[in-house]
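Sample entry as discussed:
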Amino acid sequence: MRSFIKDYFSHVWGTDIAVTKTLYDAGDLITTDPLLAVKSVYEVTLLKRILGPSYSGAAILQDTIGATITLGMPKQDSTAPIQGNFIITCADDFGTSYSTQELSYDYWTQGIDFHMQLEIPHLQSKIFVRNLFDYQYRENGVAFAVVFSGYEGNVPECAISSGVTTPITGNNVVFATNVVREYGTNLMFEPVPLEMLYTDAQAPQVTVSVNGIDGVCPQFNCDYTYVSTTAMITGQSISGNTLTITGTNLPTTDIRVRLANSECGTITSSSTTSITCTLSHGAAAGSWYVQLTDASGLAPISTAVSAINIALSISSVSPSTGLNQLGGDLITFTGTGFDTTLDSTSIAFSDGTTCTATATSDTSLTCEVDGFNASTLDTVNPYTSTVTVNGVANSSQSVTLLSTKQSGVSVAPSSVSPVLATQLVISLESTYPYALAASDFQAKLVLASDPTVSRPLYVMSVDDTAKTVTVKFNGAESGDY
């Protein structure tokens, strides 16, 4: 029966059908014995929901005399088919919700994936959408899974809602979402801390931790013992990079000497009463005590020993004139007493403007100037710079600003694809006072709504005649920068 009539329903309604046959005996009771059957009833069911009857009229041609054939009128037992549009909404880790445009109920799965990644920023390159095939036809229902890959944080639960322009229609339509975590709901336990385990070690063990995971020697042979050193430092002095230590019972082998964030590279002489060595680079400004160690650990220093005070001396700053009012200049201080550790250094100007340290050695310090305070801008009088290293300050140098603001004129193109690499041409003022060199420029995009978010731009070339800088944009999240 199915093979004879399925083409009609497929052509007219685009649906497959199911046909059931029921046998009845002479007493009009259902039977499964073909020999007792006197009546056969065929029921045709459409597998896709439709509106209204599946046909308005039909005829049956009888080729066997003696049988009675009747055709029942069509009836509809299913609910009305789903039609209209839906919207997907997902919140990010900060609670901000983003939604797709209205999508038709029969929208293809790859299209749902495309719009979620395009219109929900925090899901870009983090998801893919799969059709779950719970329903043979979209008119019966829609089920799909959003699979997260590489999403760092709590997986957001997205919501599905009816469209506004073209709402979803049907009979008792239900929207449902749930978060499914792979591998079930098994609990994950943290490792048991070593201090909670009993070991048969006979001496204290050296413990090692890698990425927060404690390790232990399996044979308990990483033991150590505390020893008391007999050494005592009673004096310290420095001349240039030459450091002299005096004391009693000083170690003479396997020794290491440090002072002012510098280490002795060469031990000139050593005895139990005196050690002389040369620092690998100039000592950093600050108040310091020598650190002398050997296999027995750190040698103590007598309380009568005075600290060595290292001065911060700055002889010049370059450039010292013509700084951009908006900042961005790289200036270099030259002198002695600079620390090779950036964290111990700060630079500020007399109006409170800061300069972020980018590179340092014992004789030079380079920093990038922030924008100067527009409310107190002074293009006539110099700004005093204060460099502080380990609490020691020096305010001997000053800088002056350009009389005009060098902020650039335009960027072309002014809009780009967030995923395609594009060359941007930045036009500077025609009166830009310096010759352009690509190595002098650094560029980045800064998100207008959140200055802490930036993306690097790569300086490719400059045109000194046209006063332009060409940079390469490699992509960023959608937004105004």
DSSP finds two helices and 32 strands in the chain. Residues 1-78 form one domain. The longest strand covers residues 454-463. The mean pLDDT is 87.
